[in-house]
Amino acid sequence: MATVICVTNQKGGVGKTTTAVNLGYFLAKSKYKVLLIDSGPQGNATSGLGIDKNSLNSSMTEALLGVVKFSDIIKETKYKNLDIAPTTPQLANTEVELTKMNKKFICLRDGISQVAQNYDYIIIDSPPSLSLLTVNGMIASDYLLLPVQTEFYALEGVAQLLESMKLVKKASNPKLKLLGVVATMYDKRTSLSSQVLAEIKKYFKDKVFDVTIPRNVRVAEAPSHGVPVGSYDKFSKGAKAYKELAREVIERTKK
Ligand code: ATP
Ligand code: MG
């Protein structure tokens, strides 16, 4: 049965999609069967893996609304062992539709339960909000993985996020745990980055992954080519860091 990891932080632009795509890529490289679920209405994980959103007959919208089976939207990517449940910008409107449904909190969990036996890891990329889609992700997951950008206000909103996690845990998903916090866009030349990293470590202690993801232009370039950085430039600092993150994630999720 798959281990389900929700990559989340309601703060925008902190590296959620980059982390979800590259973690998925390197877990798949390590021979695990991986499904990446794109639950961000911008569909950045979908395009980041080179999938043309206009070519899709169905996507997360139809799966969440129960129009098609969850398994019907899953596509293989060009990478071995890595599949994706893609999304289109329509997902933003789907969220409004979802509020009218009885199963509005658990439709993602229901969908995942139909395919979980086919995968070792399922990674969910979340939108930058504590919205219904994010709550669906939390309810469907074993773990949360929190990317935190090493910038001013890094920990802004984190208390609220942890409160949401607590509520979800209490109300509907007692097994939910924080897998870890990964510091992203770390720039070792600036003292700000190291100050913020120290602050993150003070707050989250041993939950912080040993590896930090450096600010690296290759990481930023890769999505415009529709590929993970590990495929775009496997010798880049960013690729090496994400490979190491995947190793730590495997270590922390060993059953
Ligand atoms: P959103 O909240 O909008 O969904 P996000 O949290 O998913 O954003 P990303 O889209 O992963 O964040 O990253 C935001 C931007 O920063 C993107 O342009 C991405 O390419 C860039 N970026 C992410 N990580 C790095 C990095 N390590 N080095 C350089 N650029 C990065
Ligand atoms: Mg994103």
Structure commentary:
- There is one protein chain.
- The chain is of the alpha/beta class.
- It is 42% helix and 14% strand.
- The chain has helices at residues 16-29, 44-48, 60-64, 70-73, 91-98, 107-115, 132-139, 158-171, 191-204, 217-221, 229-232, 237-252; strands spanning 3-7, 34-38, 75-76, 82-85, 121-125, 143-149, 177-184.
- The protein has a seven-stranded mixed β-sheet, sandwiched between helices.
- A hairpin with a 5-residue loop joins strand 3 (75-76) and strand 4.
- Helix 1 (16-29) crosses helix 12.
- It is globular and about 50 Å long.
- The relative contact order is 0.20.
- The structure holds adenosine-5'-triphosphate and magnesium ion (MG).
Give the secondary structure arrangement, pairings included.
Layout: E1 3-7, H1 16-29, E2 34-38, H2 44-48, H3 60-64, H4 70-73, E3 75-76, E4 82-85, H5 91-98, H6 107-115, E5 121-125, H7 132-139, E6 143-149, H8 158-171, E7 177-184, H9 191-204, H10 217-221, H11 229-232, H12 237-252
Parallel strand pairs: 1-5, 1-6, 2-4, 2-5, 6-7
Antiparallel strand pairs: 3-4
Helix pairs in contact: 1-12
